[in-house]
Amino acid sequence: MKPHLHLWLIPLLPLVGAAINGLLGRRFPKRAVAWVGNVFVGASCAMAWWVFARFLSLPHEMLPYVRDYEPGFALATSRSATALTSTSSR
């Protein structure tokens, strides 16, 4: 069973807080507006850290976009050109 991370909430939470403050902010005291903004952005930040911690707990083989590179493969740069070269002799 795959865990549902609900990544869509990370960008949505600050937008919801901004919408609440934008639509109802004049009716609230300044302290409440600041509280609403901070809570929604803080919740988004906490959720992002939680997702990051979940990725750190995964085994190396399950991490997305992890590739095993050849040990002799290096990125060589010079003044004249930038090129990918292999340092191993074949």
What does this structure look like?
The chain is 48% helix and 11% strand. It is mostly helical and 90 residues long. The protein has one domain (9-86). Strand 1 (73-77) and strand 2 (82-86) form a beta hairpin. Helix 1 (9-24) packs antiparallel against helix 2. It starts with 8 loop residues before the first helix and ends with a strand. 3% of the residues are buried.
Task: Present the secondary structure layout.
Layout: H1 9-24, H2 30-56, E1 73-77, E2 82-86
Antiparallel strand pairs: 1-2
Helix pairs in contact: 1-2
End-to-end C-alpha gap: 45 Å
Number of strands: 2
Radius of gyration over all CA atoms, rounded: 23 Å
Content-based structural category: mainly alpha
Amount of beta strand? 5-15%
The string of secondary-structure elements, in order, is: HHEE
**What would you call the quaternary organization?**
single chain
Helix content: 40-55%
Apparent shape: elongated
Strand order of the largest sheet: 1-2
Helical segment tally? 2
Biggest sheet: strands, sense, closure? 2 strands, antiparallel
Number of domains: 1
Mean pLDDT: 79
> Which blocks of ≥5 consecutive residues have pLDDT under 50?
77-82
